[in-house]
UniProtKB/TrEMBL annotation:
Its main location: membrane. The chain crosses the membrane at residues 173-190, 197-218, 230-252, 273-299, 305-328, 363-383, 523-541, 548-570, 582-600, 621-645, 651-673, 725-746, 758-779, 791-810. Belongs to the resistance-nodulation-cell division (RND) (TC 2.A.6) family. MmpL subfamily. One of its GO terms (cellular component) is plasma membrane. PANTHER family: MEMBRANE PROTEIN MJ1562-RELATED, MEMBRANE PROTEIN YDGH-RELATED. Keywords: Cell membrane, Membrane, Signal, Transmembrane, Transmembrane helix. It is a multi-pass membrane protein. Gene3D superfamilies: Multidrug efflux transporter AcrB transmembrane domain (1.20.1640.10). Residues 692-711 have a biased composition (Low complexity). This is Membrane protein. Residues 197-327 form the SSD domain. NCBIfam families: integ_memb_HG (TIGR03954). PROSITE patterns: SSD.
Amino acid sequence: MVAAFWVLIAGLLAGVAPALESVEDNASANLPPAASDSMKARDLVRAQLPGQDATPAVIVVRGKGTDAAASTTQAVAAITSALSGISRPDHVVSVVSTVTAPDAAAELVSQDRGAQLVIVPMKGSPSDESFQNAVDEVRALASDRAGPADVAVTGPAGIATDTVKVFSGGDKVLLLATIVLVLIILLAIYRSPLMALVPLLAVGVAMRVAETLGAILADAGVITVSSQTASIMTVLLFGVGTDYALIITARYRETLLDEPDGARAMQTAVRRTAESVLASASTIVLAMFALLVAISPALHGFGPYLALGVAVMALVAFTFIPALVLLLGRGVFWSGGVGKAAERSRGAGIWHRIAALVARAPVKVASAVIALLVVLSAGLLGYQESFNTLSGFRAATESEHGQHLIQEEFGPGEIAPSTVIVRSQENLRSGPAPADIATALTDADHVSRVADPRMGKDGKTVFYDVVLDLDPYSSKALDAIGPLKQATQSAAQAAGVQDATVLIGGETAQNADIRSALDRDTTFIVLLVLAIITAVLVLLLRSLLAPLYLAATLVLSFLATLGATTFFTVTVLGDDGIGNRVTAYIFVFLVALGVDYNIFVMSRFKQELRTQPPAKAITSALTRTGGVVSSAGLILAATFAVLMTQPIRELFQFGFAMACGILLDTFLIRPLLVPAIVRMLGDRALWPARPGTPQTPSTPTSAPPSADVPAARATETGHSRLLRAFTWIAVIEACTWAGLLAGMYLKYIPETTELGVRIFGTLHGAAFIVYVSLTVLVAIRLKWRLGRTTIFALLAAVPPFMTVAFEIWARRTGRLPQPTAAPSPTPAL
């Protein structure tokens, strides 16, 4: 029934959901925040200059031979004629060239007259297939009419089309490569074809459900999904899904040593892995939701879709995987058999030797690992960021070739001029102020050329196309936007325009705003993710000290990973720099996924403390988890390494960084550094908790039946504060959601402001995070089995008022005991 349920859900959702590619939004991810100056400038251009909403294709023509100027002029005339005739592509609005606009020759012709530009504004959305086909038609016509001249189509229209081409087909290659790679590794680990197929089938079901749910939500405007997000989702689910499958099935094989009945062994395995896997999934989901604090669209819209995928994968792992293994029966271990599979769960000999090494010299081991990580971190000396989209393509494109031609013939700044806007409170049509401002701007730093001013339709707004003498995507150009704005403000005051509003638009200004937003977002995200991880570790380990040194190892791992990535991609491979969003992506994913292995090891260490002293407990935890966690880390690193096959710099760098960082976590930090620290701290490793007297078979492991009732009452009294807090946050979460929904409805009434929406949205976001965290804590404290109780509790935060419904159901069914210390805070409960 469980297996059929998931297959049915996947099939039904696939039948009603749109294709994920049809709802992907690749444009907004590359834009600055909507409230930034560059976006306000873009909106003013569209509002005040009619016809500027078209997307221009820029055709650059460079003649060849001894008479390059004549060859260029002839080619431009032929291209202009072809694009102006009745057979031109439907999306072409007009053509601006030396033929149609002779007065613009100074801007369209190079100094040696060997190259010319042809501007072709095109209507429609660049994301539409018809628009991309029209750009291809323009390219075909230009190439056909140019004769021997060198011609390339670039500009926003060409770049958008090439971006789609670079991405097209990449997802299929990525999926196929990931499946083949994971299958090979799983076959090597399990030595059983059927067992190797179980994780792949589970990932396939989870991916289908997550993609269809994501497509439905994206189509409704609830979340945004980009091509890069979809690519990362593929490798994330394969990595996380196989990790969870390995953890559960490894414990299942270990349990079979003492429990021959498969169903009872699986119940025991799921129960014993529930705490660590639940903590792992919660950490990743909360880390993804932490991205919602970002103001840059690239980060803000990145998390919800991936959080949805991980949540679905966790549900599938705890339900579909056990059901599928039990359905396959003992045949799942073919061809080695149950005995060999169970025996391998005791741990390979290499992990016993590693544990012995850590036990003999924990100080030397920790010092050596830290020294290596510090050396890798030295690569950060060459760290720099890149904001050039075209330079990030690891495949030749016509738009990039066109940009190189423009830079060579017209200067570096001509490929992306900036638009300086001066807006006054008074009419500027008749005064000399616009011309005076233009004259002053020509003397500003790093200004190569200023075009004639253009007056907006309201007569109060003036637009200047300003070309810098810098590469518009370089850090120096981004740094020049602030001084240019100040120079414009001073020029406006000198020209007699008082209280003028100055805005700057264009690629350079947008990238400057993106950089500012990313710097702000990265700081907030780093602090919030570390706080989330620390909180989860505190709840899981019941310790204040352990989360601190575990978080410190994660930060050190991140610095070493970023240093190694910078050295390899920038210093060795010669990339312009690290993609501007890659650093934030690396931190969130590496920390959220890297902590998983610490969770698996430390939770097993805590379990072993029940029967062994700390020194032996960490040795047992390392030997018992060594093989499965290392296998999981190897698979996760391999899946992210598949991203290096993609022709996009950001994905290549992200894939390399994640593979490198996960391998560091798997084979250095988790088996060497963390156990060495635990070994040095001894009894204080889980401070303030202290290990009790280890239980032995001769020691009673439970109180006599007569003591059950008093013990239960004591436990209930001890949990009463937690339960009251859980109840309160459930009510607050539901109420803030109700307020948010009501505000979203009422904001469409003109008299209503959006203040209420912002207030309730902020309160609800905070309440949601606290609710999920408390749910995890209650599940751990009350030792819920990971069945419908825990699943219902986590899903209760999704639909409105389900938090209250869960409270009522849990109280009535006894999943949550009635608090005895104080009455319930709401009459309904």
